[in-house]
Amino acid sequence: MQTEERLEKIEEVLDELKALSPDIPIIVEGESDVSALRELGVQGKIIQINRGQSLFNFCEEIARNHKEVVILTDWDRKGGHLCRLLSEDLKANDVKFNIKIRAKLAGYCKKDTKDVEGLTGCVRRLKSQIVNE
What we know:
It is a single chain. This protein is an alpha/beta fold and 133 residues long. It has a single domain (3-124), classed as Dna Topoisomerase Vi A Subunit, Chain: A, domain 2 (3-Layer(aba) Sandwich), CATH 3.40.1360. The protein has helices spanning 3-20, 31-39, 55-65, 77-92, 100-109, 119-132; strands at 26-28, 46-48, 68-71, 96-98.
């Protein structure tokens, strides 16, 4: 896939995320992930996983306040494991979850970054490469 096409695909996925975010919260791993999404224009509710409580308790809290979420953990091994655990616990609490956005971003960004916080740099680099071609 060419640089321009990859950037276009990444921006399409980010637009999809922006469209969902006013109504459906996004779950991320850390503060830098929140910052990266804000920098990319995501305005909705972004929930950082609270490391002070068990994952199941975190998911129970999510279930009390939301019927659906987007899981956007990193696409490295740890992030994949965390995504699976979140999916299981959210499902046990009858919360719908979207992991398609995570999968798409992982596919388009894998060469450039393995995490959410690296998305801004990835987009910047791709834009720069296109300008310099």
